[in-house]
Amino acid sequence: MRITKKRYLQSFLIVTVVLAIVRLLFPSIANNRTAQTAVRQREAADSVGMRSDTAHAGQAIAVAQAGEAGNDTDKVVLEGTYLSKLAPSPLPSLRYSAGVSPFFKSDGSLRHTPIYSVPGYQRTFEDQQDVQLVSASKWGIQPVQNRDEAARRKSGLVFVGSNPYVYIDKLHSSIPYLVPRASILLQDIGRSYFDSLTMKGIPLHKIIVTSVLRSKDDVERLRGHNGNATQNSCHLYGTTFDVCYNRYKTVEPPGEQRRVVRNDTLKYILAEVLRDMREEKRCYVKYEVNQGCFHITVR
């Protein structure tokens, strides 16, 4: 046993001496190892920093993937138009200062805010057709005559489908396409609505979109029975959508029934969200009495 231990110590000393000699004769080896360690440390830091960027990109891709229920043409439009036009779109300013959570107090308890609604819907949301049409003409596409022309003129439009924040109703007089700027606005309204519901302790509900892009033929048919439909409708430009205020889609896991919330309560909260978006100059909003919806055009 003593001989084995002695030989082990001798071998260890020999190896140590050899390594020391190698480092003296070839110092570049030690420098390379140090450089490799620094590279690995930078890569680790970069991977952490990329998580934030990946999260933002993932949100954009998630919006695009919402249209997977459509056909292959829709997917091409999403990848070729939406993602390429997303980058230059101006991002809205942060509503909350850095380090301040809108959901929790400083002691870690859940933050709740009361429901105020708005002082009169028609007075608060009074943006008429002439005002919204200026913005629609600025940001929108050239109107299309019919559905066939719309299918050939999808350049500059993105598919909008139901997703975690928004429910697209069955469309009878429009097709589910918007310009990218309006699509981002719709997503932001849905997400802000979720935030407001959470902060007020209300079970989650999705907003319901009832009308999107219309062709000239769609508008002509609507004018026969819809007094609010105008010949030069903002819906022709892909910048405008309608969100109903008397129906909402309840979010609940399969087999679980959430507590019932009055539609009026949900309407109050939606009105607060739209008022904030309007005051931030992101959209124009008209309160439609007969059609039961908020008529919204991106700015």
Automatic annotation (TrEMBL):
Alphabetic keyword roster: Membrane, Transmembrane, Transmembrane helix
One Pfam short name: DUF5715
Ranges annotated as spanning the membrane: 12-30
Record's protein name: Uncharacterized protein
